[in-house]
Specification:
Largest sheet: 6 strands, mixed
Keywords: Acyltransferase, Glycerol metabolism, Lipid biosynthesis, Lipid metabolism, Transferase
Family: Belongs to the long-chain O-acyltransferase family.
Order of helices and strands: EHEHEEEHEEHHEHHEHEHHHEEEEEHEE
Structural class: alpha+beta
Strand content: 15-25%
Radius of gyration: 22 Å
Number of strands: 17
Domain O-acyltransferase WSD1-like N-terminal: 5-243
Shape: globular
Catalytic activity: an acyl-CoA + a 1,2-diacyl-sn-glycerol = a triacyl-sn-glycerol + CoA
Enzyme class: transferase
Strand order of the largest sheet: 5-6-7-2-13-12
Length: 450
């Protein structure tokens, strides 16, 4: 029996349908140390390790005029050769050349006549290295699932289970969300919905949102997890707080260098967060949404970090976390066709309320090998859509945090922003080593540099 597309996944297709310049594919890139094996051997190995994910052999059948629920069906003409491509970076094969190839590959739309995924084998890297770029449509898997699939492709693997995606055909039957009858939760949800709606409808003063083209730029930053953890201990913050504060500083410097004055609403950021509990698992939707104004107007690095912590806490305590989960769950109550149409309509609106998106991706817990080659980097690649000209994903792997940024080609800011993020983390590390705690009039602990 064919499996129907869920309303949330139909929404991802609707967003893509709303703008011919948008691709809703997400990516995870593994850089491998060692000589690249023969292509036929790579293809055979990947085919064997992908066999545990039935969705990778299915295509999506949509009905005329968008009527009826789209269905996943086995592709009778499936040929893995259509999905495993090879490409080489130009000389000298450094990060800039690799990032250029990633940007090009991620800008190409997946062919909806076939299963919605690709793996690109990338050669020509310096220092006797090569890479694998897994590219999957978001209606199949989210960013966390795509990184999880990379573990399934590795020599570590999942045993006989091979690759297992949260949305593959072996999952439990879909359950419709159960309405929450607790009136206290209604109040929190209503307050959070008002905050989310206000943020979406109020235009933000920022050059970082607007129409996007069909081309992309990609860049990545790497910071030592030990450095980030030191900052966390010194200032009682989380890893997410540190990365978002560093990202805020980078965006701030970007605007100032262009003669713009950062305003309190210049960096309203969509932050997907994981939810927990049985209700989320039954709804098969483990994502909620926050929409904080990151403190781009703040010039002091430590005050900015503490403000990030405070604003995220306020967004959660104020009901945005519950409201975001409620909104995502409510999407599951819509007929699939309506969900797709609604997403298309939203995608065509020239929204100016949200400036960027920043998501955290759970990375592999242990160092990986693929075909005997060590995986030395794992880079996340988020999509961009709905007038968001930059998207950021954060992934931890092998003692490092890797931050991947996809940007519209015309913005020409990806490298500048990722280098700025690395600089901002370094500045926070330096301050964490020479802290003198004081108290400000809000009661927040501050640190003044020596």
């Amino acid at each position: 029996m064919a499996e129907h597309l869920t309303p949330l996944d139909a929404g991802f297709l609707g967003v893509e349908d709303s703008d011919h310049n948008v691709s809703m594919a997400i990516g995870t890139l593994a850089v491998l140390d060692g000589p690249m094996p023969d292509h036929d051997a790579i293809q055979a190995t990947l085919a064997d390790r992908l066999r545990g994910c039935p969705r990778f052999g299915q295509r999506l059948v949509r009905h005329a005029l968008g009527l009826g629920t789209p269905e996943w069906v086995d592709d009778p003409h499936f040929d893995i050769a259509h999905h495993i491509g090879r490409i080489a970076v130009p000389a000298p094969g450094g990060d800039a050349e690799l990032h250029g190839v990633i940007a090009d590959v991620m800008s190409w739309r997946l062919d909806r006549r076939r299963p919605l995924w690709e793996i690109w084998v990338i050669g020509g890297l310096a220092d006797d290295r090569w890479a694998l770029l897994m590219k999957v449509h978001q209606c199949i898997a989210d960013a966390g699932a795509t990184a999880h699939m990379l573990t399934g492709l590795s020599d570590n693997g999942f045993g006989d289970a091979a690759v297992a995606a949260p949305r593959d055909a072996a999952r439990p039957p879909h359950h419709r969300p159960v309405p929450d009858l607790n009136p206290l939760h209604w109040i929190d949800n209503l307050r959070g919905v008002v905050e989310l709606a206000t943020g979406l409808l109020q235009p933000a003063e920022s050059p970082l949102n607007g129409p996007i083209t069909s081309r992309r730029r990609y860049s990545a930053a790497r910071v030592a997890l030990a450095d980030v953890e030191q900052i966390c201990r010194a200032f009682d913050v989380t890893v997410n707080d540190v990365v978002l504060a560093a990202l805020t500083e980078s965006y701030r410097d970007f605007m100032i260098r262009r003669g713009q004055v950062p305003q309190p609403d210049s960096l309203r950021t969509l932050v997907p967060v994981a939810t927990a509990g049985e209700e989320a698992r039954q709804a098969q939707n483990r994502v909620s949404l926050l929409l904080p104004n990151l403190p781009i107007e703040e010039s002091h690095p430590v005050r900015r970090l503490l403000a990030v912590r405070s604003r995220l806490a306020h967004a959660k305590a104020g009901g945005q976390h519950h409201a975001g989960h409620a909104v995502m769950s409510a999407a599951g109550l819509l007929p699939v066709t309506w969900s797709g149409w609604a997403a298309q309509l939203l995608g065509r609106l020239h929204q100016r309320g949200v400036v960027t998106v920043a998501t955290t991706v759970p990375g592999p817990a242990v160092p990986l090998q693929i075909m005997g080659c060590d995986v030395v980097q794992v880079l996340p690649v988020p999509p961009i859509a709905m007038q968001l000209r930059t998207g950021v994903a954060i992934l931890g792997y092998a003692g490092n945090l890797f931050v991947g940024m996809l940007a519209d080609f015309d913005l020409a800011a990806a490298d500048e922003l990722t280098r700025g993020l690395e600089t901002a983390v370094g500045r926070l590390v330096a301050r964490s080593k020479r802290r003198r705690p004081l108290r400000d009039w809000h009661g927040l602990g501050l640190v003044h540099s020596a």
